[in-house]
Amino acid sequence: DTEVTQTPKHLVMGMTNKKSLKCEQHMGHRAMYWYKQKAKKPPELMFVYSYEKLSINESVPSRFSPECPNSSLLNLHLHALQPEDSALYLCASSQDRRAYEQYFGPGTRLTVT
Amino acid sequence: GQQVMQIPQYQHVQEGEDFTTYCNSSTTLSNIQWYKQRPGGHPVFLIQLVKSGEVKKQKRLTFQFGEAKKNSSLHITATQTTDVGTYFCAGGTSYGKLTFGQGTILTVHP
């Protein structure tokens, strides 16, 4: 199974809402990533988890809060977002964080109103 | 920080023509990876190059990594309509951070 799953596929939320994005992989990968992608732009790295510990935070605003409950799951908690946060949020995983190919999920299309 | 430049931004070809996209990094890379993203889809891993001067082929696709490990190219021979999408290079570090190039959007006219 080389699949990374993400839920929900689409999410519309107001600026005062709290929501969570979920990501799951069953490939035994020990590194998981959150990326943000705007239209016609490359994915931008947000967070890296390695062995369930946060290892990279690319200076992401605190309204985005990642969580890695176990080696297969990755969450992104959202609170008080701005309209400019509307984007495709991609989760990815790799064998570990050392220079291995990354497997991306289908993404969550987020719209902040 | 590390920057990866990719050109061209857009490429329109007739089916059967060749296509090449180029990447240039501001720093020496640990590795370079290539991804393809179909319209409405997500990035899909194509290949990883690690060694200086490395050349790898996948059917009609040829990938090269420069001698200085700062540049790379992807060449597609005889494009097909199934090749449509955005091709991203991504420079990798030893600690797992990927920096993506801006991508080349390939359109193939039948």
What does this structure look like?
The complex is a heterodimer of chains A (113) and B (110). The model of chain A has no long low-confidence stretch (mean pLDDT 94). Chain A has 113 residues and is an all-beta fold. In chain A, 0% of the residues lie in helices and 57% in strands. Chain B has strands spanning 4-7, 10-14, 19-25, 31-37, 44-49, 55-58, 61-65, 71-76, 85-92, 98-100, 104-109. Helix content of chain B is 0%, strand content 55%. Chain B is globular and about 40 Å long. In chain B, the strands form 2 sheets. In chain B, strands 2, 4, 5, 9, 10 and 11 form a 6-stranded mixed beta sheet that branches. In chain B, strands 1-3-8-7-6 form a 5-stranded antiparallel beta sheet, with no helix packed on it. The N and C termini of chain B lie far apart (41 Å). The chains are: A mainly beta (113), B mainly beta (110). Chains A and B meet through strand 5 and strand 10 of A and strand 4, strand 5 and strand 10 of B.
